[in-house]
Amino acid sequence: MSGKPIRVLVAKPGLDGHDRGAKVIAQALRDAGMEVIYTGLRQTPDQIVGAALQEDVAVVALSCLSGAHMHLFPAVVEGLRKQNADDILVLGGGIIPDEDIPELKEKGISEIFTPGTSTQTIIEYIESKVG
């Protein structure tokens, strides 16, 4: 990594009320030397885009367990594009069926991390793309 830490926004879009996994990821990224901003629960795509721009992040890491990922994740990507911030890496995680992953990637989600993915794998992916 360069001298400047990678800034990551961890966000929970939609009505999903479970954030333990997002908090685990946030802590792992912090432990790896990244600066992490966690938006909390029940964020709209527009709120996430606004926070990403305000915090000048390099990465937005979205977590969704509610099944609304096919709507919410692409809405964040589209919002970033509308703000000319499509250079921000967008990652997704949570309960994402394997059959949804190719379409999410086509819609601009760089990578999807499903349950069981090690935090080290996520850290290494971010560092390889941003660091």
Structure commentary:
By secondary structure, the protein is an alpha/beta fold. The chain has one domain (7-129): Rossmann fold (3-Layer(aba) Sandwich). Helices cover 41% and strands 18% of the residues. It contains 5 helices and 5 strands; from the N terminus they run E-H-E-H-E-H-E-H-E-H. A 5-stranded parallel β-sheet has the order 2-1-3-4-5, with helices on both faces. Strand 1, helix 1 (20-31) and strand 2 (35-38) form a beta-alpha-beta unit. Helix 2 crosses helix 3 (69-82). The longest helix has 14 residues, at 69-82. The chain is globular, with a radius of gyration of 13 Å. It starts with 6 loop residues before the first strand and ends with a helix.
Summarize the entry for a quick read.
By secondary structure, this protein is an alpha/beta fold.
- Largest sheet composition: 5 strands, parallel
Distance between the termini: 5 Å
Q: Strand portion, in percent?
A: 15-25%
Count the DSSP helices. Answer: 5
Number of strands: 5
**Oligomeric grouping of the chains:** single chain
CATH superfamily grouping: Cobalamin-binding domain
What is the typical, i.e. mean, pLDDT? 95
The CATH topology annotation reads as: Rossmann fold
CATH-level-2 architecture: 3-Layer(aba) Sandwich
What is the CATH first-level class name?
Answer: Alpha Beta
Q: What count of structural domains?
A: 1
